[in-house]
Design brief:
With about 260 residues, the protein is of the alpha/beta class. Helix content is about 30%, strand content about 15%. The protein has two domains: about 10-165, 3-Layer(aba) Sandwich (Aspartate Aminotransferase, domain 2), CATH 3.40.640; about 170-255, Alpha-Beta Complex (Aspartate Aminotransferase, domain 1), CATH 3.90.1150.10. The protein contains seven helices and seven strands, in the order ααβαβββααββαβα. α2 (about 40-45) runs parallel beside α3 (about 70-85) and α5 runs parallel beside α7 (about 245-255).
Length: about 260
């Protein structure tokens, strides 16, 4: 796994999350090595040891602060995983279902993972998650079972989400609005960097954003996200957002910046 990663709070998922504060002792039995993003030398040195079963990464880090692997790095990971028979897991829980401007974030890099984890936008608020596996991984009846697995209401919610995404062209809208957001954001001298892509975005400032987040929610009634990087304001709006909505956000931001 990689530095600043977040993959969940249960068992092996939290063990692969780069945050020891939320990792209970019982989960620390999992042996996970954390590496730096975009360091191909360190990655290759680790994978050639022959004791790696899987590699998991986010195409855009959410909680970590919107950092991304380069295409060259992601493609090198995919190539080396295949060469060493290591399972490549794409964590698309936050970046999937159109948020990045493509259906999955990894599609920006032209790779094919072995396993894809999905949730969050998958149900548009309804609690649902899923796992996609490549057909080279042999599935058998009863191999995976959960108390609420295959829930009919959850499946209906996901189908409705897919229909709306297609009917309203929300993936293309995410890409267009991401470009519009970036163009507006760079006009602010306080913004050091615009991070992410599509509608999975972050604004990096030269100061910690906790107070700014409070002012935005209390004074402007706009909720924004924080990140492990305390200088990053995380922005994850609805996929059907418009330019007019983003203009409102930037007008509010201008009023609340110190």
């Amino acid at each position: 796994a990689f530095h600043n990663s977040f993959h969940g709070r249960t068992s092996a998922a939290v063990a692969a999350t780069d945050d020891s504060k939320i990792n209970a002792p019982i989960n620390k039995q999992q042996k996970v090595t954390f590496l730096a993003f975009n360091d191909s030398t360190a990655f290759e040195k680790e994978i050639v040891k022959g004791d790696v079963c899987a590699v998991i990464l986010e195409a855009i880090q959410g909680v970590g602060g919107l950092d991304e692997p380069s295409s060259a790095f992601y493609q090198n990971i995919a190539r080396l995983c295949k060469a060493h028979e290591v399972v490549l897991i794409a964590d698309e829980v936050q970046s999937g279902f159109g948020r990045s401007g493509k259906f999955f974030g990894f599609q920006h890099h032209g790779i094919k993972p072995d396993i894809i984890s999905i949730a969050k936008g998958m149900g548009n608020g309804f609690p649902v998650g899923g796992i996609l596996i490549h057909d080279h991984i042999k599935a058998s009846f009863g191999l995976l079972g959960t108390t609420f697995g295959g829930n009919h209401l959850a499946c209906a919610a996901v189908l409705a989400v897919l229909e709306v995404i297609e009917k309203e062209g929300l993936i293309d809208n995410a890409a267009r609005m991401g470009d519009y957001f970036t163009a507006k954001a760079v006009e602010f001298p306080e913004v050091k960097r615009v991070k992410g892509r599509g509608l999975m975005l972050g604004l990096e400032f030269g100061f910690e954003v906790a107070e700014l987040r409070k002012r935005l929610i209390y004074n402007q009634h706009i909720f924004t996200g924080g990140a492990k990087d305390k200088h990053v304001l995380r922005i994850l709006p609805a996929l059907n957002i418009t330019e007019a909505h983003l203009d409102l956000f930037f007008d509010a931001l201008k009023k609340e910046l110190p």
